[in-house]
Amino acid sequence: MPNPLTFAVPKGRILDEALPLMARAGVVPDAEFHDKKSRALSFACEGSDMRLIRVRAFDVATFVAHGAAQVGIVGSDVVEEFNYSDLYAPVDLDIGHCRLSVAEMAEKVGGPLPSHLRIASKYPNLTRRHFEKLGVQAEVVKLNGAMELAPTLGLSSRIVDLVSTGRTLKENGLVETSRILDISARLIVNRAALKTDERVAALVERFRALVAEDAGAAA
Ligand SMILES: Nc1ncnc2c1ncn2[C@@H]1O[C@H](COP(=O)(O)OP(=O)(O)OP(=O)(O)O)[C@@H](O)[C@H]1O
Ligand SMILES: O=P(O)(O)OC[C@H]1O[C@H](OP(=O)(O)OP(=O)(O)O)[C@H](O)[C@@H]1O
Fold first, then answer.
1. What is a single molecular function from GO for this protein (predicted)?
2. ipTM surpassing 0.90, yes or no?
């Protein structure tokens, strides 16, 4: 009997969109997964020996890259930020759409870029890479949320953060000045597991077929 497959999902907002797709792929967590009072982090799946683990978005990539989970769902922002060589993102799930952008205080927009900037972000690697291309050295102040407060309070001149409707920026007096990356959620797999475990390859094919089916229905 092979070990159960471990499938990692993020706790946050992608999950609501991912669960119906997962169900169509035959990945259905047991009732305890939906019990808000439960403190469990690992859940059995209906009708299979698969196990679901619910972790922080960034940690989904870490569990999969290290082979502690074989499969996962995560935003392409996280995939690109880590750039793990052992992590492969074969299927764009066409959910969780947003973008990674630079924003600054509305009244400060304009003028030439200085050679050094202090930027608040949850994405230090993507931020440094983006500004390097512009010939700017970015000093990144790592924050884990509420980035939009940083420019107003003088912690940084700009932020690099996720934008969807743009409402959070607007309500905090910031404007989007450039777009770094268009983002959507991906099915991710551990490269070694994909080569050695047929169940991983089968799951990839199932998700790929579902996405193709939805794209066909939308066309
Ligand atoms: N406003 C948004 N609109 C659409 N997708 C978003 C938005 N914000 C984030 N996302 C996507 O959802 C993913 C998870 O975001 P979110 O921060 O809600 O998750 P989380 O698991 O609560 O994160 P954390 O571990 O930081 O608490 C992001 O990596 C991104 O791909
Ligand atoms: O453009 P909008 O539609 O306003 O969405 C953007 C906001 O969504 C995300 O935050 P989230 O709500 O996940 O909270 P967080 O600060 O805890 O990450 C992101 O970090 C922005 O703050």
1. ATP binding
2. yes
Cα 57 to ligand 1 centroid, rounded to whole Å: 7
Same fold, 6-96+184-218 and 98-183: yes
Domain boundaries, the chain: 6-96+184-218, 98-183
What does the pLDDT look like over 45-67, one tens digit per residue? Answer: 998 989 999 999 999 999 999 99
Question: How many angstroms is it from 96 CA to the middle of ligand 1?
Answer: 8
Task: Report the CATH number of the 98-183 domain.
Answer: 3.40.190.10
Alpha-helical regions (H) of 76-190:
76-82, 124-133, 149-152, 167-171
Q: Under 8 Å CB-to-CB from 142, ≥6 apart: which residues? A: 121, 122, 124
Per-residue pLDDT of 174-202, as tens digits, reads 999 999 999 999 999 999 999 999 999 99
Q: Show the CA angle centred on residue 75, arms to residues 88 and 189, nearest 5°.
A: 25
User: The tokens of 218 are what?
Assistant: 């939308």
- pTM for the predicted model, two decimal places: 0.95
pLDDT for residue 1 is more than 70: no
Q: Which residue's CA is the closest to the ligand 2 atom numbered 18?
A: 145
Residue identifier of the C-alpha nearest atom 19 of ligand 2: 162
**What is the Å distance from ligand 1's center to 60 Cα?**
12
